[in-house]
Structure formats: C-alpha cells, structure tokens
Write a structure and sequence with these properties.
The two termini are about 25 Å apart. The protein is mainly beta. It has a six-stranded antiparallel barrel with strand order 1-2-3-7-6-5. Strands 9-10-11-16-13-12 form a six-stranded antiparallel β-barrel. It is built from three helices and 16 strands. The longest helix has 18 residues. Strand 10 and strand 11 form a beta hairpin.
Length: about 300
Amino acid sequence: MRKPLGAALLALAIAGAGAVPAAAAPVNSAESFGKSADTDSVTSLVRDTVTSTTESLNQVLNPKVQAVNFAGTVSLSNCSGSVVRFSDSEDNDPALVMSNGHCLETGMPGPGEVVVDRASSRTFGLLNASGSRVANLRADKLVYGTMTDTDVSFYQLTTTYGQIKSSYGIDALTMAETHPVAGTAITVASGYWKRLYSCNIDGFAYRLKEGDWTFKDSVRYTSACNTIGGTSGSPVIDQSTNKVVAVNNTGNEDGQRCTVNNPCEVDESGNVTVRQGINYAQQTYQIPACFGVDNKLDLNASGCALPKP
C-alpha cells in the first residue's frame, strides 16, 4: 500500500530519472493501499513525460519487454488497468476493464466485503501500443470488486470489444485459464505510468497477509519488477503468450511484518516470511469461469472461486 507520487518523484519524473518510493498515506484512503497513486500530487502531464525515458531504458536493459506493449491497457484516476476478454467472449459483448479492488472510486472494500452490480460512470484512458492515450472509455457499472482472497475489480463499459477495435484498432487482452508457472517471464504493464516492468515469477505465496486483508496463492515477482504506486491494477502478462495471468497489487516496502504496505507470506504451517522490497500480484486464471454468455457475472457457475457477497 503505497503513496509514492510526491514532490520528489515529480522532480525525478521530469528529469527522466525513474521512480522512488515515498511515504505511506492513511490506511483508510483508497490511494494508500498497495500500488495505487495519490492523484493530488501529480498530473497526467508528468505521467506522459516520464514515459518515454523509462520505457526506453526498460527496453534497453530488458530486451524481452519488447514482446509486450501498452495496447489495451488503461489509466485510472489513481491506478492502472486493462480491457480484458475471455476465450469465449464475443465482439458484441460489453467490454470489461480489470483493475484492483483497492482501486475502487468509492474506497477500499473491507475484509469479507464483496461489491457486485453497482452503478458507475468511471472513465478510463485507453492506450495504444506506444502508450499514447487514444480514447476515454466509460463504465456503466462496477460488475465486481473485492479485497477478500484476491484484490480485483471488473467494470462493464458502455462500448463493446468490436466497437473499440473498429474505432481505435485495439484488441482487448485475453485472460489465461491455467495456473501460471514459476520461472515464467512476465511483464507488468502500467497504464497509469505508461511503464513496463520485466521480470519472472519467482514463486507463489500460500497466503499473503497485509493489515486486515488476506490474499490466497499470490504471485511473487523476482526483484526486477520493482513496481511503484500507480501500478496497482496493471495486467501481469506472460511474455510467451501475451495473455494475462495476474493483476499487480502490492509489495513489502519497509520490511515490517504483515502490516499495511508490508505484506508478509504465511505458509501452510503458519510460518511467516517477510521479503522487503519484493512485490506481488493476484492470480486471475480462475476468474474466466465466473463469467458466462454476454460477459455476465455468475458467481454460482461451476469452477467459479471468487468470493460471494
């Protein structure tokens, strides 16, 4: 849970110097959790300025990152996200945007809280392959949001996949339907920062505990994915398939044990491990089973493991 976008970062961003962590915000603020951003401390102009330098540097240092681009990612007011589809989604289905549960415009859901089918007019900046904003997409409802077991949200847009493709030449990202594998080369694609992070899946945390929240079977990155605030909700993309395998959400900043901004790993025997500086994502392979015809959410569908209200 990080609030990294203060004046020091602003100066570094303008200079093209990358990003640094900053102080945590109050826990009850949606902008304070995980990798979300403080929208009062930086403008979209600065996000655009930092893009060209950081993206170019990433591509030089990590050639594999070129296999993934920004097409289909979106920027939120405080987080990142992506337009996603499932293997059986159709072009005339209403498009979905995936982000984190802690990025909801109404604040973070409490432990055990699940929000479904709530009206929303939230807007999302759609990016093309190079990271340029080409459109503003609008939601008509929040389909699902929670921070229980996972940290995910889905918004339904007023446009279909086919309309987005026809108007902007951009395809939605496809969600993988199998459990990712340790060692897989991945890219975390942040629409907020227009920045790509390239690393590997280091392993999986049986339980990831952060403050009052607990996440299950979380993806742990190798240290190269040093994600920062504003990257919350970014799709985690398998470089070999270009499919989404997880959604970026948090990391241990200060080495503290199981506190807000400092998640800890808990194994099946209850042993706790703290990995300062390591970041995490929540797997998404189980989510496609929860959506049926016309992208309708069905939490009672066979194979759907998402928490219910």
